[in-house]
């Protein structure tokens, strides 16, 4: 495990828990976690369940007793670590967005394809694909239950940056994070729409905006919960991104991503409208899916709320009795489950690094469009 922060903790939980709920072909052994600070990494190893701690990722990805490397560090380190791990013959799981730039993402996708020829697997961590209600939405749409998809709306809204005196975090530094709301959460919106509809974003018209351009530097602690110093730093990423897109199958889409939507905590709302029905998903109600079936009798039509907690639903049977819902952390376990099966059954995991590259190209097109008065820009 590379990284001891938010995602390092979420992915560690998944490796601890997945084998206890799913019958897996291999049992993951949590060998070593890597961070920059020796004492903090040792504490993280103990807390998160890793046998050892290290501050040297190069030494770790070369170890014979490491088969899988999970990259949860900030985006500026993804490419170097992933490529080294793949070349050392390790399977790789890498957090989204795949990289900070298209060039890095392309190098990673090339390395992943070379490694795949040697039986080495790689996956990018768009975990929300594995929220049961979202996976189920894709099943309905792909089975033609809403007919031909014409319109998609996706808004990923959070509010954790609303306080303009909240201290800087690495997520506000373009060098470390690549972009702001766009890559951190807009990437999820893009991936989810493409995953559900099976159509890819081909053209975009985008706007990016930074509301708070300077913040106090961090004196101690981590991120926004840390304490602010008297010195100030410059925010170099977007605070909000909004864009429209044309999809490969002829549908149109709109996307919003912001960490300034006061009152919205972790709302990823996705609406897909087709010629015969519609679906609505909201991450703040992640065990539910709304489904409008145009095949219902005329006087009985309306959105029905499906509680996606039944054994018939994706992943749900492994967990709790019917009706007992799941939370933010469960999709990470589903990710681990699927990756381990892919490795054991010698299958290409999904989403692949090529999928991660394609999302990166969408993000890049939005940035180019925004810099050019929102001109229609081809994803390339
Ligand atoms: C991870 O999947 C992730 O995108 C984080 O990187 C975001 O910061 C979080 O808000 C949503 O989940």
Automatic annotation (TrEMBL):
Coiled coil: none annotated. Keywords: NAD, Oxidoreductase. Residues 137-279 form the GFO/IDH/MocA-like oxidoreductase domain. Residues 1-116 form the Gfo/Idh/MocA-like oxidoreductase N-terminal domain. One of its GO terms (molecular function) is nucleotide binding. The keyword Membrane does not apply. Pfam families: GFO_IDH_MocA, GFO_IDH_MocA_C3. It comes from the Bacteria. This is Gfo/Idh/MocA family oxidoreductase.
